[in-house]
Amino acid sequence: MTATSWDLLLRHCRLLDREVDIAIKDGKIAAIAPNLAEIAQLELDVKGKLVSPPFVESHIHLDTALTAGEPRWNKTGTLFEGIEIWRERKQSLTLEDVKRRAIETLKQQASQGVLFVRSHADVSEPSLTALQGLLEVREFVKDWMTLQVVAFPQDGVYGNPKNDELLEEALKLGADAVGGIPHYEFTREDGVKSVHRIFELAQKYNRLIDIHCDEIDDEQSRFLEVVAACAIRSGMGTRVTASHTTAFGSYNNAYAGKLMGLLTRSQINFIANPLINITLQGRTDTYPKRRGVTRVKELWQAGLNVSLGYDCVQDPWYSLGTGNMLDVAHMAVHVCQMTGMAEIDACFDMVTSHGAKTLDLEDNYGIKVGKPANLIVLDADSRYNAIRCRSTVCYTIAQGRLLAQTEPPVTQWKGDRS
Ligand code: 17E
Ligand code: FE2
């Protein structure tokens, strides 16, 4: 009998419930079992480290990434000043500029274990350069990264007479999802109308929906109920995502309770971006100062799908950022008070499997025989310790190939006298 030869064999992998070897062949997971006897072209002993499906970045703006300070810094720290600064910066966009920054950011994320990304692309700029750039990037990275692009009308669907047409054009060009920003439209009526228009376009072109929804501290901003109602009536349910929904953190509990029932019926997905909203929101408050983040814990407790996004890496809204999803999970634990052990584990799930659900990728995601061989090895023994230490991702394996390798830092203690 000849021994099977795998392309890649990972020894001593810690999954959540057991320790196994994982064999990879032709880009797929071929075997998962303890002590696989076979040989492989490349064998890595991961020594009991946690092996996880890759991180999922469910919400980022790659078109604006790495532009912080251009042409000026955001002095108020608000969403609205960020939109103004971006409006100035986007006048000088070129395809090369968008692609270079997006690819640099994606490489940074992939080397930290992210292999699935949903990015918004501003389509309220008449040349659609941001969108075209990101569609080209989607193609360029496809051998190692799955990128979804949302057509996002940053200035509003009705903020300019051309924007509605540009949004539709973006779908014709191949955007994966339709976006929106109802709380930024001129009037409440325009906001409601924009949500209806987004659903109409999504159904016409058979696309997903991901709306920036109620990203404001105004407790009167109530577009989430409109999104949920449309999701129920259209039957689009799980193909719909509400991003940010920070006003939900300011609603009174009587209304929030009623809304929660509607949300549960709708089965839509939620994305919170705690790094960005803990800094953008609450800017008009003195004290007490609101956290400005949606009700992550309560949505999760209600059984709804919640994932977490980075949102920004060095852009007009947030000048910091590295794209490391453990930063996001760590911040969620704090801001959303998800400090119980099961809650900390849930925050890890929100940057992995819950994100996969939001992106509608479940068939291609997870560590199971027959699935594409996408996985990461963390320098940790549990989800809890991965978040606590924001552990190094030692190996990123994409479609069966070792894509990135990082050595964890090693400290030598020199303080003891001999
Ligand atoms: N645009 C927006 O409307 N909201 C955000 N958080 C970012 C861009 C980053
Ligand atoms: Fe966003």
Topology record:
Layout: E1 5-14, E2 19-25, E3 28-33, E4 39-45, E5 50-52, E6 55-60, H1 79-89, H2 95-110, E7 114-122, H3 129-140, E8 146-152, H4 163-173, E9 177-178, H5 188-205, E10 208-213, H6 224-234, E11 240-244, H7 253-266, E12 269-272, H8 274-280, H9 296-301, E13 306-308, H10 325-335, H11 341-350, H12 353-358, E14 375-378, H13 383-389, E15 393-398, E16 401-405
Parallel strand pairs: 1-4, 6-7, 7-8, 8-9, 9-10, 10-11, 11-12, 12-13
Antiparallel strand pairs: 1-2, 2-3, 5-14, 14-15, 15-16
Bound molecules: 5-methylcytosine and fe (ii) ion.
Order of helices and strands: EEEEEEHHEHEHEHEHEHEHHEHHHEHEE
Percent of residues in beta strands: 15-25%
Q: Give the number of helices.
A: 13
CATH homologous superfamily name of the largest domain? Metal-dependent hydrolases
End-to-end span in angstroms?
57 Å
| CATH architecture classification of the largest domain | Alpha-Beta Barrel
Please supply descriptive tags for the structure shown above.
418 residues, alpha/beta, Urease, subunit C, domain 1, TIM Barrel, eight-stranded parallel beta sheet, four-stranded mixed beta sheet, binds 5-methylcytosine, binds fe (ii) ion
Description:
The protein has 418 residues and is of the alpha/beta class. It has 2 domains: 6-48 and 367-405, Urease, subunit C, domain 1, CATH 2.30.40.10; 55-364, TIM Barrel (Alpha-Beta Barrel). The protein has 13 helices and 16 strands. The strands form 3 sheets. An 8-stranded parallel sheet has the order 6-7-8-9-10-11-12-13. Strands 3-2-1-4 form a 4-stranded mixed sheet, with no helix packed on it. β2 and β3 form a beta hairpin. The radius of gyration is 22 Å and the shape is globular. The protein binds 5-methylcytosine and fe (ii) ion (FE2).
